[in-house]
């Protein structure tokens, strides 16, 4: 898997918080789907979403 990168422009702290919230919602959606289907390719997507979220919020941790 290639390491993705994120290009993101935020104007202020509020923009960053909103983007983190959107990424977290997306992560939860994919994780919920993984818990339901237990698919390997969905697990990779969960890991990617967790990685993206960690880039934006270093306090975010996730283990599976």
Question: What does the model show?
Answer:
By secondary structure, the protein is mostly helical. It has a domain at 13-56. It has helices at 13-37, 40-56. Helix 1 (13-37) packs antiparallel against helix 2 (40-56). The protein starts with 12 loop residues before the first helix and ends in an 8-residue tail after the last helix. The mean pLDDT is 91.
Instruction: Give the oligomeric state of the chains in this entry, treating copies of one chain as homo and distinct chains as hetero.
Output: single chain
Beta-strand percentage range: under 5%
Shape: elongated
**Span of the ends, CA to CA:** 17 Å
Mean pLDDT: 91
For the largest beta-sheet, the strand count, sense and barrel status come to: none
Structural class determined from secondary elements? mainly alpha
H/E element sequence: HH
Q: Extract low-pLDDT stretches.
A: none
Give the fraction of residues assigned to helices.
Answer: 55-70%
Radius of gyration, CA atoms, in whole angstroms: 12 Å
Q: Number of DSSP helices?
A: 2
Secondary structure tally: strands: 0
């Amino acid at each position: 898997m290639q390491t993705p990168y994120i290009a993101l422009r935020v104007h202020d702290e509020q923009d960053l918080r909103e983007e983190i919230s959107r990424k977290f919602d997306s992560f939860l959606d994919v994780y919920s789907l993984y818990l339901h289907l237990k698919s390997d390719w969905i697990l990779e997507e969960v890991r990617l979403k967790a990685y993206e979220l960690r880039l934006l919020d270093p306090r975010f941790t996730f283990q599976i």
